[in-house]
């Protein structure tokens, strides 16, 4: 059952996927994890950790790297003037004393944690982790957040805590796209998420991978995922794509790009919802 899966199992999955170079193997490993460890009714518990940036149920943590560094320093009981504390605070900076991981906060934090945590897993389960992350997201003061981080540190080892930090920062750097994860989860998962922006709904509606889901129309009150432009390295690459379309008889539309906030307004009678990016 997913709720009883140890965090160590998920960490092993993350580590294997990150190290693998072949997309097909990454996808196969992810699918095997779902089939081996997860009950369909509990997919969301795992998926919200695998795709943390798409989880709207939990809300934001209010912990970017600079604030997270201070909270970790206090949770570990370090002096803010100590060498390791300064490494966390100055995690972006390179140099002889910062190590090879400068610029990657989670790896810098893992180096600091390795000197203070044991190597043995604390046995934290997915259920316990999600509960602690829920508390972290709802905590209003820095002191509350620090106390929860201290609990997480006590229940994990450095390797596990590194991935917890990456989940908090909502950037796992697994080398596998959201699209690939959705396609491996269910053939219709990406389409459903694009018109609902609701990962929990996707996990609940698409429990059976063999059963196709009827394409869902846009629903008032549920945010629609915006269609973003494809990034290219420079204008020459962009024009190359345009010329290719023209040569193949495809219509090309060029429009001005205006700066501003992307927002959706959903109105249903007197009920109005605003959705920002």
From TrEMBL:
Coiled coil: none annotated. GO terms for biological process: DNA recombination; double-strand break repair via nonhomologous end joining; nucleotide-excision repair, DNA gap filling. InterPro entries: DNA_ligase_ATP-dep_cent, DNA_ligase_ATP-dep_CS, DNA_ligase_ATP-dep_N, DNA_ligase_N_sf, LIG4. Keywords: ATP-binding, Ligase, Nucleotide-binding, Nucleus. Residues 8-186 form the DNA ligase ATP-dependent N-terminal domain. PROSITE patterns: DNA_LIGASE_A1 (PS00697). GO terms for cellular component: DNA ligase IV complex. The keyword Nucleus applies. It comes from the Eukaryota. Residues 226-277 form the ATP-dependent DNA ligase family profile domain. The keyword Ligase applies. GO terms for molecular function: ATP binding; DNA binding; DNA ligase (ATP) activity. Belongs to the ATP-dependent DNA ligase family. This is DNA ligase 4. It comes from Gossypium australe.
């Amino acid at each position: 059952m997913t709720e009883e899966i140890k965090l160590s199992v998920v960490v092993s999955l993350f580590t294997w996927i990150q190290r693998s170079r072949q997309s097909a193997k990454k996808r196969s490993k992810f699918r095997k994890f779902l089939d081996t460890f997860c009950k369909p009714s509990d997919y969301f518990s795992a998926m919200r950790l695998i795709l943390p940036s798409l989880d709207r149920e939990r809300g934001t943590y209010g912990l970017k790297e600079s604030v997270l560094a201070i909270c970790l320093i206090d949770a570990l009981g370090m002096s803010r003037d100590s060498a390791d504390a300064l490494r966390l605070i100055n995690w972006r900076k390179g140099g002889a004393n910062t190590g090879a991981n400068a610029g990657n906060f989670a790896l810098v934090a893992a180096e600091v944690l390795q000197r203070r945590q044991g190597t043995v897993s604390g046995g934290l389960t997915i259920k316990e982790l999600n509960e602690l992350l829920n508390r972290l997201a709802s905590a209003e003061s820095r002191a509350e957040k620090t106390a929860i981080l201290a609990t997480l540190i006590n229940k994990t080892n450095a390797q596990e805590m590194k991935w917890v930090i990456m989940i908090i920062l909502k950037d796992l750097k697994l080398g596998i796209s959201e699209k690939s994860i959705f396609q491996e989860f269910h053939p219709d998962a990406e389409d459903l998420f694009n018109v609902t922006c609701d990962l929990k709904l996707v996990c609940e509606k698409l429990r059976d991978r063999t059963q196709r889901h009827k394409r869902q129309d846009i629903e008032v009150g549920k945010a629609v995922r915006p269609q973003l432009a494809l990034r290219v390295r420079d204008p020459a690459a962009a024009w190359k794509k345009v010329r290719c379309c023209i040569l193949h008889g495809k219509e090309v539309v060029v429009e001005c790009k205006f700066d501003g906030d992307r927002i959706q307004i959903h109105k249903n009678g007197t009920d109005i919802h605003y959705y920002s990016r």
